[in-house]
Amino acid sequence: MPDKFTATWVSHSSIGDFLKCPRAYYLNNVYKSPETGRKIQLMSAPLALGGAVHEVLESLSVIPSKDRFRESLIEKFDRVWQKHHGEKGGFSSDEQEREYKDRGEKMLRQVMRNPGILNNLAIKIKEDLPHYWISDEDNIILCGKVDWLEYLEDEDAVHIIDFKTSKREDQGGSLQLPIYHLLVHNTQHRKVAKASYWYLDLHDEPVEQKLPDLIEAHEEVLAIAKKIKLARKLERFKCPQGEGGCRHCKPLEKVLAGEAKKVGVSEYNQDVYIMVKEEKSLEDQSVVI
Description:
Layout: E1 8-10, H1 12-20, H2 22-29, E2 40-42, H3 45-58, H4 73-81, H5 94-113, E3 131-135, E4 140-143, E5 148-152, E6 157-164, H6 176-187, E7 191-199, E8 207-209, H7 214-234, H8 250-256, E9 260-265, E10 271-275
Parallel strand pairs: 1-4, 2-10, 6-7
Antiparallel strand pairs: 3-4, 5-6, 7-8, 9-10
Helix pairs in contact: 1-2, 3-4, 3-5, 4-5, 6-7
């Protein structure tokens, strides 16, 4: 029998880390501080923005559809934002924080004006962290949370929606939808009818995406997961750009070198750090939760 305590767990974010840089994967997903025994997280302004907006929207799925917008999303956002206020959110100045908070408020006001699918019935997977054995034989588990599952009553099916806080649309090639399709298909009993990205900064409603083939998705994700398992077994996590590092692992190496400031412990029991010097301009990138 496979053992979930000895299994290799993979997710969209950890697979993404590994594909970008195995060293970054190690520092984000394996390394633990010798002092605290906790993993590390490098906080940034885009990460704070994405986390706060996602928390507000995802909280609606457990509220009956008729009651979801009784309280202003802006009021909820103000409360959630306190977790990310100041240096806890990786902000370099009050001005930068104000810029990001304004962006979040703008997105949520847009949602309140055009709630669309958020007014419809939703499915909530009961597990705190949905997961399934993508390979019993290889002792590998695929896990992850999906932002929103709209219930399509006429079809008794579900519609996957992923919220995006980026100012740019996805250019394709990401494994996010294949992974989400696999997760939703294998962690609840209804069929997946469609999947969409909702670019909250760009559109009033979700943009439907091509639904990935399940067999192809399984083969592609499992092949990468096996490479991750092997790297963990051999303890071999080399940056593809050599000892000098790349843009994905360099900032994390600075945490280990003592060049970052610890600002707290996250909800997931990670030591949270910020870089001492932050870029003042807004970073346009998606954040995955």
